[in-house]
């Protein structure tokens, strides 16, 4: 199969060897694995961090967010079958999704939403998991909690998902930040109650909307 790999970490991205195409053996699924034919991927900060910091002796495939079709399954797989469309953020200790095929444990895969394109669905897994874990695992927000949530950079990947989760699943007053008019409009369209400008002192911006303090401000 064709794959995009690196071997030498830390090279400038303009260097032809920083990422290059090569041919590798098609992976074979283990007992709980899905062999997925990749149709779309997304790029995350973890991809650049691994490439810059993790040396490797063999060609390494980056990329963890993916959408694709299950082509084959391991002997113990019970949740999916060939032909199913899936999306997932894979494991950082396994080869990634910058390839024609990848393996993923069925227990960390989900069925691709039918209402989304492949590209849109591929943008969701890691950002959505991060936003969910911040809200409900780290901050332990309760669904009926009456408090304010400040999301700095609410127009970004994690921030935009967190805005929607907070509005849909909690009673929090959601305050997003943005510094450009088009981004502020986008954040408002996601459901934020208020949008303030993070290029200005946040305390002053909060006072303008009648809020003295916020209970939650994930960073």
Textual characterization of the structure:
It is built from 6 helices and 11 strands. The chain is α+β, with helices and mostly antiparallel strands. The chain folds into 2 domains: 120 residues, Medium-chain alcohol dehydrogenases, catalytic domain (Quinone Oxidoreductase, Chain A, domain 1, Alpha-Beta Complex), CATH 3.90.180; 71 residues, 3-Layer(aba) Sandwich (Rossmann fold). The strands form 3 sheets. Strands 7-3-5-6-8 form a 5-stranded antiparallel beta sheet. Strands 2-1-4 form a 3-stranded antiparallel beta sheet, with no helix packed on it. Strands 9-10-11 form a 3-stranded parallel beta sheet, sandwiched between helices. Strand 9, helix 4 and strand 10 form a beta-alpha-beta unit. The radius of gyration is 20 Å and the shape is globular. The relative contact order is 0.13. Keywords: Metal-binding, NADP, Oxidoreductase, Zinc.
Topology:
Layout: E1 2-6, E2 20-23, E3 33-41, H1 45-53, E4 60-61, E5 65-73, E6 85-89, E7 101-105, E8 109-111, H2 118-122, H3 125-138, E9 148-151, H4 157-169, E10 173-177, H5 181-189, E11 194-196, H6 202-208
Parallel strand pairs: 9-10, 10-11
Antiparallel strand pairs: 1-2, 1-4, 3-5, 3-7, 5-6, 6-8
Helix pairs in contact: 3-4
Quick take:
With 219 residues, this protein is of the alpha+beta class. The chain is 26% helix and 25% strand.
Rg from alpha-carbon coordinates: 20 Å
Distance between the termini: 40 Å
How are strands sequenced across the largest beta sheet? 7-3-5-6-8
Q: Mind telling me which CATH architecture of the largest domain this is?
A: Alpha-Beta Complex
CATH superfamily of the largest domain: Medium-chain alcohol dehydrogenases, catalytic domain
CATH topology of the largest domain, by name, is: Quinone Oxidoreductase, Chain A, domain 1
Apparent shape: globular
What is the class of the largest domain in the CATH system? Alpha Beta
Number of domains: 2
Number of helices: 6
Specify the helix fraction band. 25-40%
Structural class: alpha+beta
Order of helices and strands: EEEHEEEEEHHEHEHEH
Q: Give the number of DSSP strands.
A: 11
Describe the main β-sheet briefly: 5 strands, antiparallel
Low-confidence region ranges = none
Assembly state here?
single chain
Range of strand content: 15-25%
Name the average pLDDT.
Answer: 96
């Amino acid at each position: 199969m064709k794959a995009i790999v690196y071997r030498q970490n830390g090279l400038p991205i303009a260097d032809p060897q920083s990422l290059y195409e090569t041919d590798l053996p098609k992976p074979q699924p283990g007992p709980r694995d899905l062999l997925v034919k990749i149709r779309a991927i997304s790029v995350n900060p973890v991809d650049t961090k691994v490439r810059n910091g993790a040396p490797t002796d063999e060609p390494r495939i980056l990329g963890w967010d993916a959408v694709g079709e299950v082509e084959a399954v391991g002997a113990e797989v019970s949740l999916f079958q060939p032909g199913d469309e899936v999306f997932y953020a894979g494991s950082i200790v396994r080869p990634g999704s910058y390839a024609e095929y990848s393996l993923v444990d069925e227990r960390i895969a989900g069925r691709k939403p039918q209402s989304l394109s492949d590209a849109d669905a591929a943008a969701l897994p890691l950002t959505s998991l991060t936003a969910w874990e911040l809200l409900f695992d780290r901050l332990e927000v309760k669904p009926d909690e009456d408090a304010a949530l400040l999301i700095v950079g609410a127009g970004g990947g994690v921030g935009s998902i967190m805005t929607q989760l907070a509005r849909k699943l909690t009673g929090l007053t959601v305050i997003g930040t943005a510094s450009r008019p088009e981004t502020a409009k986008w954040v408002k369209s996601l459901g934020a109650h208020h949008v303030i400008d993070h290029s200005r002192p946040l305390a002053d911006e909060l006072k303008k909307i009648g809020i003295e303090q916020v209970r939650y401000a994930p960073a």
